[in-house]
Amino acid sequence: MQHLIRTDDFSIKEIEEIFKDARQYSDGKFYRILQDKIIITLFFENSTRTRSSFEIAAKRLGAEMVHLDLSKSSTKKGETLVDTAMNLDVMNPHAIVVRHQNSGVPKILSKHTKASIINAGDGAHSHPTQALLDLFTLKEHFGDVNGLKIAIVGDIKNSRVANSNIELLSRFGMEVILVAPPHFLPKTKLRTTHFLDEIVDEVDVIMSLRTQTERHSSQSYASLKDYASDFCITKELIGDRDIVLLHPGPVHRNIDICDALLADDRCKVLQQVTNGVSIRMAVLKKLIYDF
Fold it and tell me: How many CB atoms lie within 10 A of CB 77?
């Protein structure tokens, strides 16, 4: 059984096949190829977009969804995550979608299940379907992304979205530039800067990230407004430049991106959400139907 824990679990050829299926699924129709299949969602962190996106994707493919209410699960009684996964697995689901606040949990669970484990985000480690939908959004807009430059801006050190996109976008030939205050930058060989105006004239894409205050051990800024004064993507910064704007959500308005740009045609945030359903349909097809 194949799992999706990181973006590099799929080859470029496999990803292109996923994108081909996603283009077909973007028509919004139902393709009931997963009838009589069962998919379980295990979300140990709050989620609106990702959980809803997976559930809609599964339903459009005809699968039955089982969402485990973790506030009433046996993990609250002391059962380990591995035991929970093993008990669910012997009920013969076809896939288990897992989100957890700790890095590495989906990988650990994948060693104890026959069902496909799909990582819906683990700590600051990885969020593969988000990166896939981001790349898909860019390829649908530009066609070929090889040679394009993208600036990833914000709380990069604590971002699983950044980690997954750095791997995936680099593999498809994009140059990734990291823009953040020093304490938000990871150790990296990539080009970095602390100033947006240093890169705004050369990039094709800006991906803004949410400041993940829940992952900070201490307060980094006096307020988010102080952070925004340096790193909010504003109309004044972008001007009339032909730059595509991305954000994985949820967006902190006027902290990550200003209101005016969120309403601008260059901003693809809602298109990312739309594409997320198609991409997750294609991933479920690959892991369950094609396997």
Answer: 7
